[in-house]
């Protein structure tokens, strides 16, 4: 029975009812230690749904996918049914087979698909306790899956300590637990067996704050003499003191085996006993702890009643005891130590650990046994998260019908060696470096950083220390840990006497500074690293400069010109994939067409550029020179490759580039589908830059449609404080969106104020800065600001001449028409080679001029044509303006009778229907869109009645363009 949690229980009941109806949800339950998070999880698990469980353990936080194992184990027999890329990714995560490292989010997608498969015959409850102690790789995978739940009938419940920093889960619903109400707290306290005086009872109720664990544990240790004690300890420390007093009453051998278990941080009772035996303790010595309700052995694994109890055992032990425990565990995980420990060991005389003292002190001792991230508040040893999985005598973990390789034993041994070290220890350092290498290959970057860093601290040789720090810094960059990467790089540089690693460290610091919002210093470091590589390795210099293109865009023309000049000086081999890429970038950074993008991509591929990451920047540069059709084609190819290869991190920028092409090419509906998919992915995997850009782009789309409320909301989202505020990367697009909205509504002063931002560097030379030049000209002309209009027109003409694109020339001709005494020749030129929306706007301006010139028939022709295009594109403000002009001519207009079947669907439904119409199965669609197949089926089920069909076979007959 739970006291005082009726509201929370009802919330869980609703989620479980939804799961039974086929709907999915995820919930994070937060609260302080002992507040009742686990009790609520247990309540949910007792409601009859099939349940899979896992938990984070503090000591496992540095080994990748430790906690993921137990969660997916019940469904491992279904792994063979996963799409090949997902299957390979999950197997690679567990170190099975020879698969190449996979995108971390692809592992999350594999988890989502696996959970959906497990829920195929009914709802599924997925419980993750102590989520604040999850290893980062597991947390990333589970959060990716949780955010993409929809119609699988899966409920994911996470329990975590209070504070978003402990387990950041943006996008998920959260429930924060507070203390029990006074009546419930009193009922729980009175239900205990300890008799309390009224004064003590009152103090407990007051100081516990309604914390259930405190109400259960403190009565046994709080005496009446404590009632007037001043300055009471924080609640967590009071609870640990309560546990310490109980631990001190146990026999010495029991404390020994409990300390080994606490240091191990694993439920693997076999290895715990194997290590404890060398210290004079064994299985029978656990009985007193079980009798005292501190641990549970009934399930064949060792579980602690509460994590604070395990912390109390470890913290209460003397330093010498901890060191001895870790040495014993390191020996137990050594290759020659794979012997079985009998379950009926006789306990020798308890010498072992207790010879060093009782360990009753509550002081946390910090020394060289500190973990990689500071003083140990528990054990600093990462361990694999078996949580009760079968353990063979050789130590490998039974994973369904397959076992993890013995590498995990080596990893455990390495960390225990590190925790047992009292100074530099090359054996431990080498073991940890090997662990870091393996962890990095499995994309467990956070754990690899910790292992490299600790290996550096234990290094005897200075060169090895610097090398390991460099590896830690580079791995931190891969993990997106920019601030930590910078700190590691600074430490390495301070010790790199010979400058051997200078170039690599400059790259690390450059990427860290760019991520922290300082593109100027980042650009200087990129250029410095490129100069250092130019003489001996021009190919590497070219690759560094392709990264510098990004930083230069945020600075201005001077940096872009310097970069272009540098690229021209590199002597690159003709068969180097960087050669065609560098040549293209040399021209495009200044908005100059040098060759076709398509030819550059083909040439780069022919010389070995087979990774989509090598070609992404070309798409952005292609937009600068106006090669939109080719960018659209290349981006579509790269998106397909990224979907196939599971390169999820590249999808957001590619979808953004393609959405731009689709919008400018007159396909706003497709553009919105791409942008919203890109935004969802960027949000799921924490790509703040692309979250900002795509929110702003969606604001621009909303402005096109005249949706004022959404335009402003998306623009605000783009410049949210957590994305950089007014300096966010999407700020330029946000200003452009509000400018377009104001222009469409005829609010010229407001449009002028927004578009003014496009005349200031760095926005001035950005893609959107160039593409708003026609808007700047029109607003300035209508406001009578001829000088401002001429300045924008000059820039537009220069861009047209450099890019050699007909559609840019058409826009320049429109600008000339607005400023010319005889505009008609320019208007006619502007109608050749333009794109739908731009051409329609030209016809609107031309028609307005013709009406003022009393040429009503000609004006009607232009205005009717532009109205038809605006109607088709959903450009409501511009359609209203065209209709107003037609009304002035005495011509009525009607809305389009049919806007196509896709107009009835949501963007996701539209995307799924298109793929289904092409003949793809639900599973194939799910793999392509990073959804579960059940979610795909759910959206098709909703789309059919909107489209007037009853099966997917009828979709091919619909006009879905």
Q: How would you sum up the major sheet?
A: 5 strands, parallel
- Detail the poorly predicted runs: 224-231, 339-405
Structural class: mainly alpha
Number of helices: 45
The largest beta-sheet arranges its strands as 2-3-4-1-5
User: What sort of overall outline do the alpha carbons produce when their principal axes are compared?
Assistant: globular
Overall description:
- This protein is mostly helical and 961 residues long.
- Helices cover 58% and strands 4% of the residues.
- It is built from 45 helices and 9 strands.
- A 5-stranded parallel beta sheet has the order 2-3-4-1-5, with helices on both faces.
- Strand 6 (295-296) and strand 7 form a beta hairpin.
- The longest helix has 18 residues, at 462-479.
- It is globular.
- The two termini are 58 Å apart.
Q: TL;DR?
A:
This protein is mainly α. The protein is 58% helix and 4% strand.
Which descriptors would you attach to this protein?
961 residues; mainly alpha; 5-stranded parallel β-sheet; 45 helices
Indicate the topology.
Layout: H1 6-20, E1 25-31, H2 37-45, E2 51-55, H3 68-72, H4 84-93, H5 104-118, E3 124-129, H6 136-147, E4 154-161, E5 173-176, H7 182-190, H8 198-208, H9 212-217, H10 235-248, H11 252-264, H12 269-277, H13 287-291, E6 295-296, E7 303-304, H14 307-316, H15 319-332, E8 398-399, E9 402-403, H16 407-420, H17 426-441, H18 445-458, H19 462-479, H20 482-495, H21 502-515, H22 519-534, H23 538-553, H24 557-569, H25 578-588, H26 597-606, H27 616-624, H28 628-645, H29 651-664, H30 668-685, H31 688-705, H32 708-718, H33 731-744, H34 748-755, H35 767-771, H36 773-782, H37 786-803, H38 806-819, H39 824-830, H40 836-852, H41 856-873, H42 876-888, H43 907-917, H44 922-929, H45 933-947
Parallel strand pairs: 1-4, 1-5, 2-3, 3-4
Antiparallel strand pairs: 6-7, 8-9
Helix pairs in contact: 4-5, 5-6, 10-14, 11-12, 11-14, 11-15, 12-15, 15-16, 16-17, 17-18, 18-19, 19-20, 19-21, 20-21, 21-22, 22-23, 23-24, 23-25, 24-25, 25-26, 25-27, 27-28, 27-29, 28-29, 29-30, 29-31, 30-31, 30-43, 31-32, 31-33, 32-33, 33-34, 34-36, 36-37, 36-38, 37-38, 38-39, 40-41, 40-42, 41-42, ...
